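Morning F.,

Quick status update on the modeling queue. The single chain you submitted on Monday has been processed. Sequence for confirmation:
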Amino acid sequence: MRLTTIARFAAILLLGVLPQRAAAQFTTYTDLAAFLAATTGAGTDSFDDLSLTDVTPSPLVRTAGAFGYTATVNTTSFFGAGAPADRWLSTNTATDIVTFSGFGSGVRGVGGLFFGSDVGGAFRPGSSIILTAFTMSGRSSRTVVDATLATFIGFVAQSDILSFTVEAVQPLDGSFAWPTVNDFVLAGAPVADVVPEPATWTMMVLGFGMLVLVVARRRTSRIA
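Structure tokens below.
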């Protein structure tokens, strides 16, 4: 077997593996129990300490269990929503995008309850929310249509999640919807779910190619 043939075989194998890995980078969950079963060490930030009457400056440094994070808005500030017994994180401007980041290493799961609120901070029925999770190797986005107070969405990635954004789709009737978050969850992933990074896949494929080369040489020497 010639070296060029082996190299071509290794390239084909590499191209076949990496797209499948990219497609499987994220798993999306709509059930909290299933999300928790797929992760470890999950922690929740309920936002129940936020003010309902005053603005909250951005950035906002928070924790969800053992995980720290930073929440920011792209233009103004945060504003509390909900009720005294159940407070939510929302924005002072409807068109603002909320970005969660600064997770540190080991965060593989992010989720929560995501919906729209009105100018008074009450739940706004019929709102749609755009959620996007980012890793070094890609992103996954989902639009939640007609989100409810109990609409859970969680993303679990095969590598560390770097950031997560929440954006409200503005209604076509001229009214507004504010992006709103409740019970924000961060989690790690079980060891069994960790898969090799792209560089590791490359080394594995090249190593396999070299093994084929060695075998081919041995066969040639035997024939000679």
